[in-house]
Design goal:
- The chain is about 35% helix and about 20% strand.
- The protein is of the alpha/beta class.
- The strands form three sheets. An eleven-stranded mixed sheet has the order 5-4-6-7-1-8-15-14-9-10-12, with helices on both faces. Strands 2-3 form a two-stranded antiparallel sheet. A two-stranded antiparallel sheet has the order 11-13.
- Helix 8 packs across helix 14.
- It is globular.
- The N terminus is likely disordered.
């Protein structure tokens, strides 16, 4: 048994290599990996208005809302590859579970797990996030009022995050290790790291990582407004321009609904199944600030990026591209740029920087997985997606994406995700196989 010195840390290359063999995504900008890649290149935003919600002045709340229309028809394309009960489970599930099932089915098919797969006990499932569907509880309370005896018996299962775990494991026939991993807006990266760990340790050969659609109720959205974290007030007539990471007119984050999936797989398993390796998870780290507030910490972010580089066994100069957390909140954007400057110092002139949230909105628990998909598509497609709303950058030191897609030949991408409660995560993705 190998034991590593805590001061020296550990490296991903010391363990079984973890690859990405499948991806899936549903978002208001585009659904399906191929269409999402085109939307990134075009700089097409999915941000509009959220139905039924308003700012204090009565104007509709800006956000990226995934339509529930057509989901059942889309599922029909995959139903034959899944368990006998999958169709019934999909029909009776809520919007977040349906979106997860569709993203998962696309990734499952790309990884050819519908053709050949390990034993069910060798496949894991990690769902990113906690408190994924508070709209379920809100709707039940609105329906029942004070007559709680009218509550549907299935509510006891449906309100729990583990409901997604159970439904998806039944649909896809997964019987290996599984869990939900909560880390607020850092949940997506935290889930990728946990899935990589159970593959590295040989607990499973394949792991489905789901970034689920956050199904928030009016209570949560009002909370974000009241804490001053939500933006868009100055962009009522131009919602697509409301999410402005690193621009001087950034006001706060804009909520986005999306679901994304990565299929992670041990390199040996991918070789044995003869499936294409899309990318490799080269490194990653997570660290706490030791506080319970929403304020970001420069020290915590620096420590996490440095540890991620160490686990990948690479120098800062090797990183070509950073998919920033970049939420469009003034304090968050400034803090992240200062952190990046401290870690990458003299390398800033060649490291390209963008934030996918400018196009998708902030997808909360799904954000890390959505942005991993965006990072891999840019590495594979040799391009850098634009930042259409970046008109007056808050820093002249960093090398931001422009208003149009640019050709780029990246090999390594670093993706940051940070969460309320002082949660910092970074993952490093390498193009293709090792």
């Amino acid at each position: 048994m190998r034991i590593y010195n805590g001061a020296a840390g550990w490296r991903f290359e010391d363990f079984r290599l973890v690859t990405v063999t499948g991806m899936g995504i549903l978002s208001p900008a585009a659904s399906g990996v191929e269409a999402f890649g085109r939307s990134l290149k075009d700089g097409r935003s999915g941000i509009g208005y959220l139905s039924g919600l308003t700012y204090a002045d009565g104007q509709p709340l800006i956000g990226a809302e995934l339509s529930g229309e057509g989901l059942q028809e889309s599922f029909g394309r995959y139903e034959g590859d899944l368990s006998r009960n999958a169709g019934r489970l999909f029909r009776i599930s809520g919007k977040s579970v349906k979106a997860s099932a569709l993203a998962g089915a696309e990734a499952w098919q790309q990884a050819k797990l519908n053709v050949s797969r390990p034993e069910a006990e060798r496949i894991g499932l990690i769902i990113a996030g906690s408190n994924i569907s508070p709209a379920v509880s809100y709707a039940a309370m609105m329906e029942c009022g004070h007559q709680l005896e009218l509550l549907h018996p299935r509510y006891a299962l449906n309100y729990m995050d583990t409901h997604q775990l159970g439904v998806l494991s039944e649909m896809f026939g997964i019987q290996g290790e599984g869990a939900t991993v909560g880390g607020a807006s850092a949940s997506g990266n935290a889930a990728v790291l946990r899935a990589a760990q159970i593959i590295q340790l040989g607990i499973v050969d394949v792991c489905m990582v789901i970034g689920p659609l956050a199904d928030l109720s009016p209570l949560e959205l009002q909370g974000f407004l009241n804490i001053g974290a939500y933006g868009g007030r100055s962009f009522h007539d131009a919602p697509a321009a409301a999410c402005r990471p690193f621009d001087s007119r950034h006001e706060g984050f804009i909520f986005g609904q999306a679901s994304a999936c990565l299929i992670l797989e041990g390199e040996d398993s991918a070789e044995a199944r003869q499936v294409e390796v899309l990318a490799t998870i080269a490194g990653g780290a997570a660290a706490l600030d030791g506080h319970s507030l929403s304020d970001p910490s420069e020290d915590g972010q620096v420590r996490t990026m440095e540890q991620a580089l160490h686990t990948a066994g690479i120098a800062p100069s090797v990183i070509d591209y950073i998919n920033a957390h970049g939420t469009s909140t003034p304090l968050g954007d400034v803090t992240e740029l200062k952190s990046i400057s401290r870690v990458f110092g003299g390398q800033l002139s060649h490291i390209r920087l963008n934030s996918t949230k400018a196009l998708t909105g902030h997808c909360l628990y799904a954000a890390g997985v959505v942005e991993a998909v965006a990072t891999i598509l840019q590495l594979q497609g040799n391009f850098l997606h634009p930042l259409p709303s970046l008109e007056d950058p808050i820093s002249r030191e960093h090398y931001f994406a422009s208003s149009l897609a640019e050709p780029a030949g990246f090999t390594y991408g670093l993706s940051n995700s940070y969460g309320f409660g002082g949660i910092n995560t970074s993952i490093i993705i390498r193009k293709g196989a090792s």
